Structures
1.
Amino acid sequence: MAMLHLLGTGAAFSDGDRTTTMLAVSGPGSTVVIDCGGDVVPRLLAHGLELDSVAALIVTHEHADHVSGFPLMMERLWLAGRTRPLDVYGPPSAIAQVRRLHDSFDTSPWPGYPGVVYHEVDLVEGAPVFVNDDWESVAAPGKHAVPTMGVRIRDRHEGGVMAYSGDTEPAESIAHLASHADVLVHEATGDAPGHSSAVAAARIARRAGARRLVLVHLGPGTGGRAAAARGGSIDASLAHDGQKIPF
């Protein structure tokens, strides 16, 4: 069965037990990481994931709490012995930001450095992202201060589906993306421009017919948000760093 790993569940500023929101999905042969605003590699190791299994990184948008850890991620993968390039997928503006961050460090003296292959994803509903023997994924645009996307990943072996909203206001495009997902991971920063409250996230989950709602991108003092989202038939919970969820 596919596994969702909550490497981090916080907003740009959170309580001390949360780092920035970063996800991974693992299957029989590969792992896909989503966003890298923090120190990804130790989190992968803490989850028992083989670093060489990382087949792709998906970045949802260009903000620092979602991409600023990328150069360190690449350095650590190289030090761990990776030699093949890492495929990175995201909206054009996010790819441009990741490229700038990476290229601000001179990796030319590092023998065997794996390098990066960048893939721009169209900001339209159903845009193809990444596919291999384990996974197929598509994207949809969200509503944020900068171009952003949510991601839907399906386990090609058993059919389980995980959807992630990225940073967004409540958006019909995300409800469509999460249609009948086993798990919808939705941000719940609060009722502010470019973001969603827990109640709004629950509305999107119900509209999508998702089986389970997991709230992430949480700032300080988030204790009441899961209760606020639980009304009706939705199974809603606050995420916590280190959590693993089969789907």
Note: The two ends are 7 Å apart (CA to CA).
2.
Amino acid sequence: MALGAKRAQVQWLFLRQVAFLLAIGIAFGVAATFSLQKAIAGLLYGARASDISLLGLSIAVLTTTAVLAAWIPVRRASIIDPARALHHD
């Protein structure tokens, strides 16, 4: 923002990085789930390891949590005036 970026541009920059890391995590998680189905099946009670709706729900919860965990601090940081943030007393 001190170099001319708008608040929305700064927020999108950080959220895009979070989305990239989230996509990598989801891809590895789904791959691990399908490759370790037999080991995971023993840990689940009343659900199958290959249940797509359960996998989709867990991805949705993970995505919501990650976006909120990133959005709240990014929003608060983007509200601060850049001149005030750069000024050191």
Note: The chain has a mean pLDDT of 83.
